[in-house]
Specification:
By secondary structure, the protein is of the alpha/beta class. Helix content is 35%, strand content 16%. It has five helices and five strands. A five-stranded parallel beta sheet has the order 1-5-4-2-3, with helices on one face. The radius of gyration is 13 Å and the shape is globular. The N and C termini lie far apart (29 Å).
Length: 116
């Protein structure tokens, strides 16, 4: 079973990581397509941000650090849930799905992020 958090819970998830390890800097993995990133994107705030379209992840798996917590983001949460499941099956320990995706991000975290 994959773990999912809402975008509004991301800061708490980051804080929990940093409570265990003050050097913790989670990664938000945006798995949307380039045109989607141009339409609406998040700004890193307490996390690193990496854009990697879903279809490219198996070939680029070595670019994802295994020791870093990862939160997967897409448009509504479907693709990111699939990527979360894939990464967990590849042996990544701390991976969560940002349920509701960029759409929920716009509603819960930053209303300046356009909805599409």
């Amino acid at each position: 079973m994959i773990k999912a958090i809402r975008p509004a819970q991301l800061k708490d998830w980051i804080a929990a990581c940093q409570a265990e390890d003050p050097q913790c800097r989670p990664l938000v993995l945006d798995v949307r397509e380039p045109w989607e990133l141009q339409t609406a994107s998040v700004k890193p705030d307490g996390f690193e941000l990496l854009a990697m379209p879903m279809a490219s992840i198996p070939a680029r798996l070595n670019e994802l650090p295994r020791e870093q917590p990862i939160a997967c983001l897409c448009h509504h949460g479907g693709r990111s849930a699939q990527v979360t499941y894939f990464l967990l099956n590849q042996g990544y320990d701390e991976v969560v799905n940002l349920h509701g995706g960029i759409h929920a991000w716009s509603q819960e975290v930053d209303p300046s992020v356009p909805q599409y």
